[in-house]
Design a protein that fits this description.
The chain is α/β, with parallel strands linked by helices and 291 residues long. The chain has one domain. The chain is 48% helix and 12% strand.
């Protein structure tokens, strides 16, 4: 159970990949999950790749242009630096809370949550010491339509290649930053509301996967921001605020080394997406169809 929650938590760190409606698969020149960043004093281009954190083996594919962009870069940057043991320790610590979940609910609410958790192969007794963030991670386990043994983590596969080729590895933020964002965006009551939508996550997960496989970035943006799963306050905390902080850090990183940034696809598009924020800083940011 703990391993499954860790898997789900990794998925929810940085991208809420949920949706409630199918969208048109038609793409155009802007619909790419790989973007080149150049100009504004950069001696070499850098790249931003939108990722889907966890995919079933049958759906997993990293396109040649992604590998080529990574190979041409000197530095690999993830949202969290998974090679930093301090960060991994922080993730472990963040899974538990000082106050039991049952102590924060009425007896009726606790009984209702216990029934909901049956759908996740758990019960309140098993998760009573979980933090709201860890409890929220269970949502992602319903959105992964295959056993834990049949999944791959997109960033981890890229990380393996980066380490094999002796590239430097860095992160855009800390686990504590992400934990704060999730905690502020989804309090315990809101987490429980999301858990109740579990079947909808399961049903729509494959639609998100198909949009990702088709590099349908605009569609992904619409789906991620569906108000059923993410209201405006949550969008600000989970996406906008973090994007702004990342866009402030990225120029110094790109100036020092040609870098490959791998971030959840939900962080790329829109007024407050990384593409637009970097353009506003004077960079040329263009989609890459092949490389």
């Amino acid at each position: 159970m703990k391993n499954l929650v860790k898997l789900g938590f990794t998925a929810l760190l940085s991208m809420n990949f949920m949706t409630s409606a199918a969208q048109d698969k038609k793409t155009d020149n802007d619909n790419s999950l790989l973007w080149e960043v150049s100009g504004n004093g950069l001696s070499k281009p850098s790249y931003i790749a939108g990722t889907f954190h966890i995919l079933c083996n049958k759906d997993f594919d990293i396109k040649p242009k992604i590998w080529n962009a990574l190979n041409q870069s000197e530095n690999f940057v993830m949202e969290i630096n998974y090679t930093d043991q301090n960060e991994m320790g922080a993730m472990q610590k963040m899974m538990s809370a000082d106050k039991k979940i049952s102590e924060q609910l009425t007896s009726e609410e606790a009984a209702e949550l216990d029934k909901v958790l049956v759908n996740y192969g758990a019960d309140l007794k098993k998760v009573d010491r979980y933090s709201p963030q860890a409890l929220y991670a269970l949502v992602a386990t319903k959105a992964i339509p295959c056993p834990q043994t049949e999944v791959k983590m997109y960033e981890i596969e890229l990380l393996k290649a980066a380490l094999k080729n002796k590239k430097s590895v860095n992160g855009l933020e800390k686990v504590d930053d992400q934990a704060y964002a999730i905690g502020e965006a989804y309090n315990l009551k809101e987490v429980i509301s999301q858990l109740k939508l579990g079947n909808e996550y399961a049903i729509t997960s494959q639609k998100m996967t198909e949009a990702f496989k088709n590099e349908n970035l605009k569609t992904l943006d619409q789906l991620i921001k569906d108000p059923k799963f993410m209201n405006k306050k949550q969008e600000k905390l989970m996406l906008t605020d973090r994007n702004i902080k990342w866009a402030e850090k990225m120029p110094a990183i790109m100036k020092k080394q040609s870098s490959f940034f791998a971030v959840g696809s939900g962080h790329l598009w829109g007024k407050n997406g990384l593409i637009n924020l970097l353009k506003a800083k004077g960079y040329t940011v263009k989609p890459v169809s092949s490389l």
